[in-house]
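Pasting two entries for a bug report.
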Amino acid sequence: MSLDDHKLRVFCTVAETKSFSKASEIIHLTQPAVSLQIQALEELYETKLFDRTSSAVTLTPAGEVLYKYAKHILALYASAEKEIGELTGLVKGSIALGASTTIGNYLLPKVIADFRKARPKIKIHLQVGNSKRIVELINSGNIDLGLVEGEVSRQKIYREKLIEDELCLIVPPQHPWAKRRDVSILELTNEPFIFREEGSGTRQVIEKYLAKNGLTPQNMKITMILGSTESIKHAVENGMGVSIVSRWAALKEAKFGTLKLLSFREEKMMREFTLITPKNEVLSHAAEEFLEYIKKYPYDNLLNV
């Protein structure tokens, strides 16, 4: 990535988020550094590119013109890199990848490691955040591909189902249910239950499933609300209650026997892992290779513990 390429990316991110602080979060630069990049462009063109008088940051007429060309220039950079890569047959470069928590922490590490064995010259930068953040990073052009859990609102992105994910009940091995394969969702109302925090994708799926079966969180004996899957697993292992997590998140514990995974009798609690890519961007040769790889990857082999 050349320096000018970087300045244009910073400029486009500010233009799209209409905020210097939000842009600095997305591209991992300090706010003064973002301002300096914009200032350098304004000095180059000897004109203001943003109107900072109102509460939001808006593009000036000159800024609008630069934005139109900047998007075009960045797309041309990507096309040039891709075509040269195809010509030389050398697939190298780096891929910026974003993934929501369950996928980023439990599914991707093994997939990325296998991909790197096949394509050692490609570097992968992975950012993990909630689904909303990953969509923001895609929209601002700061990641090439995103992998998210659950619903994605219609924006300037392509969505494609990658795989299905089952949410399972986890209980400690000494629990009376540990010998069973499944339980009824209604049986959960008598058990101390550990919930994820509000706004978590996993919690939204659980609440939807409860509602479908005539239950609300108020019907549950909620003893704890925790902010991460890891803390939930530890609490369940220590006999503090039962909980529901992605099958991917508890594979290791199931393998070593520290947790038991059960399905629900009514129907399995399922959600989708979705692949998201920017609508009007040209993917680099490296990103396309990775995209093809993850679509064909044998995920089921990883689940068989």
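Entry 2 (this is the one that rendered wrong in the viewer):
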Amino acid sequence: MELRSSILEELQLNPTLEELAMEGVSIDDTGEPEESDEPDGEMDFEKEDYELLNRMDEDWRDDIGSDYAVRTPSSEEEERRKHFFDSFVGEVSLQEHLLSQADLSELDKLDRKALEYLIGSLNHDGFLDDEVENIALLGDLPLNKVQKARQLLLTFDPVGIGAVDRQECLLVQLELSGKEKSLAARILREEFPLLIRRRIPELSRKFGVDADTIHRALGEIATLDPAPGRRFSEDNNRIIVPDVKVFKDEEEEWRIVLNNDYIPRLRISRTYKDLIAQGKLPRNEKEYLREKIRSGRFLMNSIEQRQQTVERIAWQLLEMQKPFFEEGVSKLRPLTMNQVAEIIGVHETTVSRAIANKYIDTPHGIFELKYFFTAGYRTEDGQSVSNRSIKDTIQQIVDGENSSKPFSDQAIVDILKEKGYKIARRTVAKYRDELGILPTNLRRAYQ
């Protein structure tokens, strides 16, 4: 719908463009429907339109003589192409807010790339869901560049953005406000488990202060923002319309269908074609229409490029993540954007932009396209599994546990090892926290 709104705005600004009605029906000058001879589902920029532009270019050269130069797209046009390709939302997103700050930072090309990749990896809370090492691997970036970019990101507004978890997020806020040596910071740094359970007596004993002092420190922590990214995504009731659908047809063959329902079909107006063909226009009017027709072609090509790229990426996801589409999340494989980019012949930043804020409808539900790009692990039998699959397995383990004797993190590690996954206990704890699963003692207490 955002893309459609942008296209309709362009239609208002360019008189040589007109929208075709659906199912091959357009509207004539009287406002009545007429049958269109244009093929359904395609933009109408025919051979005659290119010939028209070429003819106008020849006239243009005659008019301005030897000063004529081959025209290259302006920076404004390139920005418009990127706009239609990305289809970003109207309100300022967290990513846009952070990128505007990145523009003020003096960074070399690789540092900027690492920073942009980190910004694109943030979840809705403003945290990094994955370890920096995995992010560097997925982005095919030097680890030291990603680490440097993260330290810079932690200083951006809102403070705490780019943290790996809530504990670091709150600590960064205190440190940047000059309170890194305060009791609140010490509690966060040294006794975070006691803090989240509000064990006042134990905290009082640990730090050798009375309960009132602990309460004041906790009050200071309570003023911090535990999820700085959420202020940019307060509207959680948005309707998601998938850009692409993957399904099996009646013959059990996989099919991919792009959702073009909301994208207007465009063509160059016949009225202006006829007007130009008469050859009676003054130079200034001919110049104006020439630029508008060229701009219309540019717009249609940009939309077509966007749709083709999304479709090609979807086909590669189907090919490379076939076990997921067949069986579900537990079969998701590790995959990097660079792998897909090499196959379809584009730069990995093109893949990153193409999948941003776009969704795919699968037999197992609707997912963001970026969901399918994830780091992973290698099992004992040599198979690769994504960290999302590991999380799904952990969720299944917890769902099936005895409520009176919930599994400890170490017990989950042992179960995963039996399934062929060698995962460290701290990694299990991290994934458990990301899944919103409480620690062992709280799961027992709550049940």
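Dev reply: Rendering is fixed now. As a check, the viewer should reflect this: Strands lie at 17-20, 25-27, 33-35, 244-248, 254-258, 265-268, 359-362, 365-368, 376-378, 384-386.
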